[in-house]
Write a structure and sequence with these properties.
The complex is a heterodimer of chains A (289) and B (372). Chain A has 289 residues and is α/β, with parallel strands linked by helices. Chain A is built from six helices and 15 strands. Chain A has helices at 45-50, 92-97, 139-147, 170-178, 223-235, 277-280, and strands at residues 21-32, 35-42, 58-63, 67-72, 83-88, 105-112, 125-131, 155-161, 181-187, 197-198, 215-220, 243-246, 262-263, 266-267, 274-276. In chain A, the strands form three sheets. Chain A has a seven-stranded mixed β-sheet with strand order 10-9-8-7-11-12-15, sandwiched between helices. Chain A has a six-stranded antiparallel β-sheet with strand order 4-3-6-1-2-5. In chain A, strand 13 and strand 14 form a beta hairpin. The radius of gyration of chain A is 20 Å and the shape is globular. Chain B is built from 13 helices and 16 strands. Chain B has two domains: 11-94 and 115-236, no CATH class; 248-281 and 302-369. By secondary structure, chain B is an alpha+beta fold. In chain B, strand 4 and strand 5 form a beta hairpin. The chains are: A alpha/beta (289), B alpha+beta (372). At the A-B interface, strand 1 and strand 14 of A face strand 6, strand 7, helix 4, helix 6 and strand 13 of B.
């Protein structure tokens, strides 16, 4: 419905929310086989200054001629001028990223999505349960907790990888432990040097004595792992409102208009990726949904 | 000819051939006319020059998996039902460059589009279609992020709507309350009688476009004729849908046996999503020149029926037709309500007509309800 015809030609649309911004790689750290952490900073000084993100959110990374992919931040949200992304080389874009070097430029837009509820869960015991590269979007939580250790109760990190060589951030484990994070590690397949647990991540729950009244579970990893993490947590009477899940779906736009990441009523890119389990329970585990 | 234009909200009557004067006024104001026209044995939407391009004297016959145009006994201007096209292809084009990227000094630069968005006048928008536009408004403009391409086109669209007195065999807008009478949001709405158009003026600009048109106040008899034509249309509608227990009906039946049965028929061809006036799923492609220096980000329509749609590393979330059909139907009739506060279907019947195997959404929902 038109009340006026304002101009002869009308507006010219700009790139809008899809605009990507050049950012330079300032460090690359090999983490495990086909996994590395890229530290990047925006070329535009104003953007570098203004950019902030919350633990659990993601950026859309872009390479000219290749395309885009959603990757969560794995670095400390308190120092957002340098953004860390831990990337597993799995698809077109991430394989192309694997060929980049320090000084190369990638496109970044974001941050997108929901975050781990760090303020809401202050005072709680935290049980962080992750598998594989699922640790990456939870490392910002660990950094936040370490910065504000007094705001949280006991903190458990349950982490599993395929083999000891696939463990991410191993060089930080000692420091995390010293600052009061209780680490429980497991692998699917041990090697001769491994002295820890062998088996799936949810089994690590049996090593803990959790207080269901004050424990919050934060989990990210393969969906089948999450399924059993929820099972173990609920078996310990942790309410589903205090189990937070980071979901993975195909995300193309990051802003809720492309439709790919739909999960029932939710757009995972917009209302997720972090959901309280209570919000997704009716649909979680429905096959092929 | 009256010296003044009709008031907003007024009903006036004009001679049918004088619609040409409205179209001329729109062209003079800089609008590109988009309207129904006969092309490749269908009534489609394309650029038109005047009333001569309209499908005057044509109608269509629609049934599941069947569409035919046939001559009418009369010379009605809008005596057909909606065809395979919808207005979404003009507000949300099937293929559209969002911006360009140029490599430069070891970095790259985003180059915005320079062309202003086209200014369209849509001629002959039905009630169901106007509702479809309102639904896409919520998708592209209602969230925290607004789509600038959609916005630039949408905010300057002129809508010449038509009350639908010619429902088709696959229509069920009356069940959803989206037609046959047009709702709000038009600039001009026509009701077609034998020799006359009743014109309802909906906006300032709509009134302005009437300035060269001889009009007279609509008589009570004509208004009665219009009401009767709409009432007849409601009764003539080929299909109906009980929406009473949506969305829970679908959410509570995600493992219903009917999904297997419909999956055995569904070709997963995506026709329904292409003809649907509300389906908005899209992808952005990276198009490179041969040197690898210039790139375009090109948005294209996508469909939840394509195998890659739900791809994540390691596989597809919805690998089978059963899962994809279930996604589409539950999105339209259940999760859309949660997402946008409104049903995702307008009852236009296109998905039924253009489904190659004639799958009928109203029948599928009835079956899940246990009424087939």
């Amino acid at each position: 419905m038109l009340n006026t015809i304002t101009t002869a030609t009308g507006p010219t649309p700009d790139a809008g929310p899809m605009r990507t911004h050049p950012a330079r790689i300032i460090a690359i750290k090999e983490e495990a086989y086909a996994i590395a952490t890229y530290e990047i900073e925006f070329e535009d000084p104003a953007l570098k200054e203004a950019y902030q993100f919350k633990a659990g959110q993601f950026n859309m990374l872009y390479l000219p001629g290749i395309g885009e992919a959603p990757i969560s931040m794995s670095s400390d949200p308190a120092t957002p001028q340098v953004i860390g992304h831990t990337i597993r080389y799995a698809g077109n874009l991430t394989r192309a990223i694997s060929r980049l070097q320090v000084g190369d430029v990638i496109g970044v837009r974001g941050p997108y999505g929901s975050a781990w509820p760090l303020e809401q869960i202050e005072g709680d015991d935290l049980c962080i349960v992750t598998g594989g590269i699922g640790l990456a979007p939870l490392r910002p939580v660990i950094y936040h907790v370490l910065r504000h250790r007094e705001r949280y109760g006991r903190v458990f990190l349950l982490y599993g990888a395929r083999t000891p060589d696939d463990m991410l951030y191993e060089d930080e484990f000692e420091s995390w432990k010293q600052q009061g994070i209780q680490l429980y590690l497991t692998v699917d397949r041990a090697d001769p040097s491994w002295r820890g647990h062998v088996g799936v991540v949810p089994m690590l729950f049996y090593l803990l004595r959790l207080d269901p009244k004050k424990t919050t579970v934060l989990t990210c990893g393969p969906e089948i792992m999450i399924h059993f993490v929820i099972y173990e947590a609920m078996a310990r009477r942790i309410p589903k409102e205090r189990i937070y899940v980071s979901m993975e779906r195909n995300m193309k736009c990051g802003v809720g208009i492309c439709g790919h990441c739909q999960f029932g009523p939710h757009f995972v890119c917009k209302e997720g990726p972090v959901f309280p389990y209570a919000a997704i329970e009716p649909f979680f585990g429905v096959e092929d949904f | 000819m009256p010296e003044f234009t009709p008031n907003i909200g007024a009903f006036v009557s004009i001679q049918k051939s004088d619609l040409q004067r409205v179209l001329e006024a729109l062209k003079q104001a800089g609008f590109t006319l988009i309207g129904p026209t006969v092309d490749e044995s269908a009534i489609v939407y394309g650029e038109i020059d005047g009333i001569d391009d309209l499908p005057i004297g044509w109608t269509d016959r629609q049934e599941p998996a069947s569409y035919r145009i046939v001559r009418r006994q009369d010379e009605a201007f809008f005596g057909y039902t909606v065809g395979p096209h919808s207005w979404k292809k003009f507000l949300f084009p099937p293929k559209q460059r969002l911006f360009r990227v140029e490599k430069k000094n070891g970095s790259f630069q985003v180059v915005d589009e320079e062309e202003p968005a086209p200014r369209f006048a849509f001629i002959g928008v039905r009630g169901c279609e106007l509702q479809a536009i309102h639904i896409q408004d919520r998708v592209f403009l209602g969230g925290p992020y607004q789509d600038p391409n959609y916005k630039a086109r949408r905010q300057q669209v002129f809508v010449l709507a038509v009350n639908c007195t010619e429902p088709g065999g696959t229509c069920f807008c009356a069940s959803l309350g989206t037609g046959p009478q047009v709702g709000s949001g038009f600039d001009i709405a026509l009701t077609e009688l034998d020799d006359t158009f009743i014109v309802e003026v909906g906006s300032e600009v709509g009134a302005t476009m009437m300035r060269n048109v001889p009009w007279r106040p609509t008589s009570a008899f004509e208004l009665q004729q219009a009401r009767e034509a709409l009432a007849t249309a409601v009764k003539a509608m080929g299909r109906q849908l009980d929406t009473s227990d949506l969305p829970d009906l679908l959410y509570n039946n995600l493992e219903h046996e009917r999904w297997n049965q419909v999956a055995a028929r569904c070709l997963s061809c995506a026709n329904c999503t292409m003809v649907c006036p509300t389906c908005f799923c899209n992808d952005v492609l990276e198009v490179s020149d041969l040197k690898g220096e210039q790139f375009e980000r090109v948005r294209v329509w996508d469909s939840c029926f394509s195998i890659e749609f739900s791809h994540v590393h390691g596989g597809n979330i919805r690998p089978h037709t059963r899962a994809r059909y279930r996604q589409w139907l539950t999105h339209k009739f259940a999760s859309w309500i949660d997402q946008f506060g409104i049903l995702g279907c307008v009852g236009c019947g296109r998905c039924i007509t253009w489904c190659p195997v004639g799958i009928d959404v109203t029948e599928e929902i009835d079956a899940i309800r246990g009424e087939v």
